[in-house]
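Escalation from tier 1.

The customer reports that the assembly of two entities below gives different structure tokens on two consecutive runs. Tier 1 could not reproduce it. I'm attaching the input and our single run for tier 2 to review.
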Amino acid sequence: MIKVSILGAGNVATHLFRAFTESPEIEVQQVYNHRRESLEQFTNAATITDLKDLKPADVILISLKDDLVSTYVEKLQDRNELILHTSGSVPLQKTAKNNGVFYPLQTFSKQEEVNFKEVPLCLEADSEKNYQLLEQLAKLVSDKIYPISSTQRKSLHLSAVFVCNFVNHLYQIGEDLCEQNQVPFEILHALMTETTKKATHNSPKRVQTGPAIRNDQKTISSHLAQLDDANFKEIYKLLTQSIQRTHGKKL
Amino acid sequence: MIKVSILGAGNVATHLFRAFTESPEIEVQQVYNHRRESLEQFTNAATITDLKDLKPADVILISLKDDLVSTYVEKLQDRNELILHTSGSVPLQKTAKNNGVFYPLQTFSKQEEVNFKEVPLCLEADSEKNYQLLEQLAKLVSDKIYPISSTQRKSLHLSAVFVCNFVNHLYQIGEDLCEQNQVPFEILHALMTETTKKATHNSPKRVQTGPAIRNDQKTISSHLAQLDDANFKEIYKLLTQSIQRTHGKKL
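Tier 1 run:
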């Protein structure tokens, strides 16, 4: 049995709490947040609003805003537990006695259920012994475990902005264009799903299609003429150029 | 029973041939291509390389390159069949006796099987009677039928470039960044799939996340410093600005 206390009450903390609670080999001992109201959702947990009330455990997992991580690790520096954080952009900390990172590479929202077994967990620790405990905990909730250094995690976090945040923005542009022309955006859903499926079954570089890679100037000009929004036009041009540069040798 | 002949042997023609063949109420009468070699894959079909050999049918479906559509419709102008084309960017033709559009909004490749029942079909015809035959044919192969005008189809084709071709390019940038830092790209697959799932279950505008919408300047600067490639840096800046402009009121 691994005893875990969680610091935080946001999306990541909530999903981790659920995943930990479902494992018979993990006991979530306490959930901390400085605001009592944020803890109301944790109905079947012992909740605290003062770090002094933290009981001894095996692991303390910090799932707070990136900026707060180092401050909280310092506050916990005299404790014997393995102190983990869940942030993609914060390096492995050194100030606690036992330090580690437990970074779930997924986008979490309250409205969408997530199958945690499928969530890739990027792990790092300051000693072999701490890594073993970290890995033991991680394997109880996910089937996808990766040892990842702070430098690698930093690059994954940047890649995630491209394949998640920026991709979602392109979806939103697609939605805007549909609205402007009274077309239901749902017509594009099957295409979005298939595009992503193809890019996960193959290297995205090998399955690139469209007017840019074909260097189909007639279609490119017609698309640019259709775009009223100067911003969307700029994005169309830049991504077209970038595709052509990447695949330059083929043209 | 609807008798269909197909002109073309590319990805779309191949997937349509399969879907039509599987319906007991459709008979694929002939498949035409001007090159005999391209027709070798159609083992259980009557194939022809000369339009003069086309037998009478109910529908002739042109699935050739966009540039060739109008030329082929003209060649078929004296025929009595309903002449369809499958192109997103070509308007409804007028030169044949009976004209229509059968545009499957999906990305097709030879290596990926597609469940055709899930492929959205955008339909348009030059008369109510022709639309009825077109719809009857479409309903035999797909559950997702949309009446779409030429103007609407033009905007769908443009939106598809954003949500498919450009999205795939962002995936490729993510893959490049992973390779540069010796991280397996597969760690990002779950995030890609979840991001797309969220954007099809909700309005993408409502589920936007990341440093741009949070106006997290520290992370944005750190990401820009990490990007060596001037092109990727430019894309990062432009998409960040565009997200901030879209969600300006929230900041």
